[in-house]
Write a sequence for this structure.
């Protein structure tokens, strides 16, 4: 694990110092679309909706994913901004990043709540609750995987001192 952190740290610092190139819109779209396909497959296993509720649920879910793509792109840009900031972290930059993460998370919660209500109105509260649980579960898993790949700023600084 320590070796992995050091390698990631070297990567982040070297890319920050030579001018980190952002993910292109096409790359971000491709990544988000791939994740969306995988996520939809997982949701289909976690939300066993059938009959007339199925058509209504998947129509609303597809709409939700389209709205969610914008937020996912902003989250991806935030991760990139965090990586770039590691080379020049200041209290102001750290605060700005934290505020952006809070805002992104609140936006995600609001969108999920809005679509919970839409799904509940179109189907029933059980299907809507299954949607909510699936989203929370999958978003938590995705965030955990991403965070396992990125050292915290404290870990990075500790690795320099050793």
């Amino acid at each position: 694990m320590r070796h992995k952190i050091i390698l990631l740290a070297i990567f982040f610092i070297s890319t920050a110092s030579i001018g980190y190139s952002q993910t292109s819109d096409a790359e971000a779209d491709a990544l988000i679309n791939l994740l969306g396909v995988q996520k939809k497959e997982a949701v289909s296993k976690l939300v066993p909706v059938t009959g007339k509720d199925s058509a209504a649920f998947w129509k609303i879910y597809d709409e939700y994913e389209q709205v969610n793509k914008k937020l996912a792109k902003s989250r991806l840009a935030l991760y990139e901004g965090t990586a770039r900031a590691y080379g020049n972290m200041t209290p102001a930059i750290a605060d700005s990043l934290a505020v952006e993460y809070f805002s992104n998370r609140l936006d995600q919660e609001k969108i999920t709540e809005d679509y919970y209500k839409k799904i509940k109105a179109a189907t029933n509260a059980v299907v809507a609750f299954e949607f909510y649980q699936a989203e929370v579960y999958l978003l938590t898993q995705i965030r955990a995987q991403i965070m396992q790949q990125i050292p915290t700023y404290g870990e990075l600084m500790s690795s320099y001192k050793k």
